[in-house]
Amino acid sequence: MKILVACEFSGVVRDSFIEKGHEAISCDILPTEQEGPHIQGDVTKHLQDKWDMIIAHPPCTYLCNSGVRHLSTDPSRWDRLKEACLFFNLFLLSTCPRICVENPIPHKYAVQHLATGNYTQIVQPWMFGHPEKKATCLWLKGLPKLVETDNVKEVMKTLPAARQSRIHYMAPGPERSKKRSVTYSGLAKAMAQQWG
Questions:
Q1: Taking a C-beta distance cutoff of 8 angstroms, is the pair 130, 152 a contact?
Q2: pLDDT at 168
Q3: What confidence tens digit (pLDDT) does each residue in 26-45 have?
Q4: I need a labelling partner for 21 at 20 to 30 A (CA). Which of 65, 82, 145, 192 fits?
Q5: Measured between alpha carbons, how far is 81 from 63 in angstroms, rounded to an integer?
Q6: 95-137: per-residue pLDDT in tens?
């Protein structure tokens, strides 16, 4: 299959599909961190290309629950929220036969602007071999729900809270948002195994 992995600079999802023999290409405004097929630039210019599957990771800054409190303190975020929803909807409404759009749990104002507010599934890293919590919503079209591959929830529960929620407790810094956006390798491998 020919697969576009949109808004991915890490190459984690792209490389998982390549390992399964697919033609996967990542696209992001940032350069790829792992050598491999990558388009550095505006993904919207490539959405109408012929793809068998699109897996998209649009920015969540203005959509996710963790950022909703800033709407009351910074009025400019309302316009950014609407722009973020329009971008998100480009993937949801794509004519590609198989689509996965991934994001954290959205707040209620984002849901009102999404083409389909209801996500299909929530997955956690501990379902795929990572003893951590980070609820990730998947909006799926033409794809089945993911089935967990390596449930390590009981192991995770023995760890300190800061380790269980490592992403949440990550220290502020210039690389924080990039590090928080990288897909867990176990989840990427499950996508490639089950959807590839």
A1: yes
A2: 73
A3: 999 999 999 999 999 999 99
A4: 145
A5: 6
A6: 999 999 999 999 999 999 998 878 999 999 999 999 999 999 9
What CATH number is given for 2-195 in this structure? 3.40.50
Calculate the CA 50 to chain-centre distance.
Answer: 21
Q: How many angstroms separate the CA atoms of 103 and 54, rounded?
A: 14
> What is residue 176's predicted lDDT score, i.e. its pLDDT?
66
Q: How many residues comprise the chain?
A: 196
Neighbouring CB atoms inside 10 A of 186's CB total: 19
Asked if 45 and 69 count as a contact pair (C-beta separation under 8 A), the reply is: no
The DSSP annotation for 56-76 comes to E----TTTBGGGGGGGTT-TH
Percent of the chain that is helix, strand, coil (3-state, to 5): 35, 20, 45
What does the alpha-carbon distance between residue 85 and residue 107 come to, in Å, rounded to a whole number? 12
Quickly list DSSP for 103-164.
Answer: ESPBPHHHHTTSTT-S-SEEE-GGGBT------EEEEEESSPPP--SB--HHHHHTS-HHHH
